[in-house]
Amino acid sequence: MKEVINLPVRNVEEEEYHINMGPQHPSTHGVLRLVVSLQGEIVKNLKPHCGYIHRGIEKMCEKDTYPQIIHLTDRMDYLSAHINNHAVCLLVENALEIEVHERVKYIRTIVDELNRIASHQLWWCSFGMDMGGLTCFFYGLRDREKVLDIFEESFGSRLLHSYYTPGGLMMDIHPDFQKNVKAFIKYFRRKIKDYDDILTGNIIMQERTKGIGILTKEDAISYGVTGPSGRASGFACDVRKHHPYGVYEKADFKEILGTEGDTFTRYMMRMHEMRESMKIIEQLIDNIPAGDYSAKMKAVLRLPTGEYYQRVEAARGELGVYVISDGNKTPYRMKFRSPNFSNLGALDHMSRGVKIADLVAIGGSLDYVIPDIDR
Amino acid sequence: MDKEALKERILGLIPDAEFQENKQFLTFIIPPAKIHDLAVTLKTEADLAFDYLFCLSGVDMVKFLEVVYHLESTTLRHQLVLKVRTADRENGTVDTVCDIWHTAEFHEREVYDLMGIRFANHPDLRRLFLEEGWIGHPLRKDYVDEVNIVEL
Question: The pTM is what?
Fold first, then answer.
């Protein structure tokens, strides 16, 4: 007679196991590894592992002059390259007490907002794809292309522009810039309605995002979650409102705050923000004053000994640049407080207790760009 | 609270804090033993309410290592910069503030990884960007990397 082997019975329900999401996972939008501890399909906690694209930008900056550093900032959050450039330019201008022309301020503000729209368009299409809607991906990229065409015509590049320089701009805008921007706004005002029809009103998407990944206002402030993600929790953190730069003070726009702090509110914040950005551009585009596109600058820029800090509102939140200068043409120490880095810190807290499929939605709503985390 | 009143308030709390001249922010150098208690006071007192730590950086000033805290109150909108110094390059330790401002948990790991400053009572002090077993801390001024850095 055959011997019966008694295998130990495994209670899978009670066992905890770990899953590696990434480094090559479509929903992490880059090389980020999340070690997720699961019980069944419920996330118990997760540990982000960063550094796959760490290039040591802060260390490189210590060897570079300020105009050279601008090219490195493009490569942090490459989807808001103009805004990153803006932070370094403002820091140098404030430190050297240079007054830039009004024309430059207007152009910078308009281009920043175009950049924000392009960034949110890419967020929208990838968020839609994360939720299983492939049409969003095509629609979003189709419309982002229009912005990139405007960029290409004026600045010669589509992604990494390095268009701003300390004191002004690399070159003047193309003669057709204003005409094309106005045509784009007209076009996109129509198209953004499609976005709402396809995704915002979609019942499957709403069921998957409402009440998921809630971040309270206190936690958002404590974790330093800024940008649309922070404002979804009711944290008034818009640098454009609270520490204005450029010509934002002359434009009439709202800082829209959410109350729920869930994934759907974070989604809605970005949809509102695209409309607010269009509003800002419409107010400024016809009023660009004539003048020089750059102030007279010395060939070698040396910041006076001291410390400088500049904050700007990048597409994903507050970007801070902290410079300690010892009077040389290169900074002694340069630190970037990148928005994605702080936002990622809250991911573990937000995703405890959700299902693993919801983690994809939460990650999509935080809209992280990995090179900005790793720098 | 305006800068002068805030300066008096901080000096009242920590009489041996050293005031540092800075055009942009009110800046103080705090003795390392007092940073945690001061952080609790700064966050909880109603007239201070520094609830938002918007930047935490490590700096190598060669003679000492420094941790810089940039603070803001989201309700009262005043700002403050605190600095803590440690001269011990091997085992320099500063108390963590991540129980007060959660964002510090990530920032302190970065500072430990790249600058080599330890944080006492940190729940998970591991390297963040570099792999375990990496020798040295790249953002220090005396770090030599024969392989990667291009000298200009």
Answer: 0.87
